[in-house]
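Sample entry (233 residues):
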Amino acid sequence: MGSPRSARAPSPHGTWSSAGTSRPSEFHVKHSTRLSNVELSPSQIDQLQRYAQLLAAHSESAGLMAPSDVERVWERHILDSLRAGCGLPTEGRCADVGSGAGLPGIPLAMTRPDLRFVLLEPKRRRVAFLELVIDELRLSNVSVHQARVEESEAIGPFDVITARAFAPPAASWERCRPLLTDEGWLLYFAGAAWKIDTERGSLANLGPRAEICAGGEFPWQGPVVMMKRALPA
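Predicted structure, serialized as tokens:
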């Protein structure tokens, strides 16, 4: 793994080329490095590209993504997932709940091989795909647990949990909180309509502090929100 980079402000909006499953463009490589917050090696870029190819090849049979997203895997899924790199810990265990196709867990694990990742996914055909990816790409820091989040407390606690396309904000926090360490946090991929001042109100009764970890760079993206337990009074 490369050395961690200091956080940078997002670059101005540019034109996202639709690379699909072809070799990633210089644009995709540059933004993968910036968003993941580490200097990526050529082998890590190759891993991400092989993962994109596996996603496209198994998308229909495993029900992984919308057909329209197959030719936009890099921008819609891989680069989007890497935005959570800013919120990963320096060490510890991470879980990706409702992992589905392995997003964001697998791209994050590829860029941070020093961290342990557990992918929580209840559906067998998606679990089979995740196991295939782990085996073919030799991801020694990733494992799969076939279960719902509510059935997974015994395999915790985790320092960080990621939730993308999982559940509404308050429900995600309520379901993930029992799996977190006391100092752990949830990285929640919010929708484009997220307004932090409004959502803080809906979260208030559940107790988490919420702050923006990474902003959305394009109209279809919402922010990545970091949720932590409230400080003791």
